[in-house]
Amino acid sequence: MDFVWNILASLLFAILGAVSYRFVYRPVKRRLNVLTRCLPFAIDDSTLLVCYGLIPPGASGSSYYAVQEGDLAGITLAQEVLAANYGSERLALRGCVAAEGLIRDADAVFTISGPRWNRITSACLGKLGSPIWFEVVDGRVELVVQPAGRSPQRYRTARNPAGEARVSYGIVLVGTHLTVDQRAQRVVTCAGVNNVATYGSLCFLLGLRNRRSFRGMRELKAAAMSGRFVALLRVENTAPTLDDPVRMPLDASHITVEVVQILAGDDFYPPYVYRYPNCGPDLAASGASA
After folding, report:
1. Which of 222, 229, 188 lies closest to 86 in space, CA to CA?
2. E strands along 138-197, which residues?
């Protein structure tokens, strides 16, 4: 009889341990993670919709939709980062075309790549009132940084003599907006002026899992508490000298990411309609100087 009770006690202990790990330890561990403090996603979100950019047939020289190397590497990083913090079972990875039919009902959205190839990113920039947006000037993609009430600054890719992207700029945009049926939708966007910068923005998020890398970023701590912020990032694909070829394929060890500035709170605009490639917020209405 004692033998049976010992078996039952062991089974009960194992079940309690598994339940505690699943519903207590894992959620608490994720909640205390530095990255989860910066991102707006809730631990109890049923699904996290991850939308990545697609190059349409013809634009890529192919009859099929394509994904750029940097964006593809970024998808891998996003899955690694988000699965570790929110659980792989909650991730739904979709190309931006398929995601358009799901976006309205999603409570949590993570977009990868800029508005040229990802229309979900384009919509999120406007809905969150981002003070940083993308424009095309003389055929080159630029990031326009213009907090409400201030003059604009512009950032574009710097290339080596071989024409390869050496220094690029990207953003991590975080916030919450109301959908048409007045539900709060939590959004994170990682995008750049090219696919190297998009990948670099994912590397930045990956680095936030390290508590040491976060401690010195007081500005980011304050911005994260505001609930809506955007980080402008300088992304360098490292090589010994400017004349050397850029290191490929892309890998996190090849990327150096620096925070140029972080905007939050009153730096943002009211929601606006953003249309790539050259339409940001209504600056006249917001009182900003052109």
Report:
1. 188
2. 140-145, 153-156, 158-159, 165-178, 184-192
Within 10 angstroms of residue 116's Cβ, the number of other Cβ atoms is: 19
What pLDDT score does 130 carry?
A: 95
Give per-10-residue mean pLDDT for the chain (290 aa): 62 58 48 65 79 88 83 86 83 92 90 94 94 93 92 90 85 92 91 92 81 63 79 84 63 83 92 82 48
Tell me, what amino acid is at 261?
Q
The pairing of strands 140-145 and 153-156 is antiparallel
Q: Which two tokens stand for residue 168?
A: 């690029």
- Cα separation, 238 vs 61, whole angstroms: 29
Distances from the Cα of 94 to the Cα of 30, 109, 119, 171, angstroms: 24, 11, 13, 21
Owner of token pair 């304050």: 222
Instruction: Provide, for the chain, the percentages of residues in helix, strand and coil under a 3-state DSSP scheme, each rounded to the nearest 5.
Output: 40, 25, 35
Cα 40 to Cα 3, 71, 263, distances in angstroms: 50, 22, 16
If you write DSSP's letter for every residue of 155-169 in order, what string do you get?
EE-EE-TTS-EEEEE
**Residues comprising the chain, all counted:** 290
Those residues whose C-beta lies under 8 Å from the C-beta of residue 48, and which sit 6 or more positions away, are 41, 82, 86, 90, 91, 92, 108, 109, 110
Cis previous bond, 249, omega within 30: yes
- For residue 121, what is the enclosing H or E element? helix 119-127
Q: What is the pLDDT of residue 25?
A: 45
For residue 106, what are the CA distances in angstroms to 22, 24, 99? 24, 25, 10
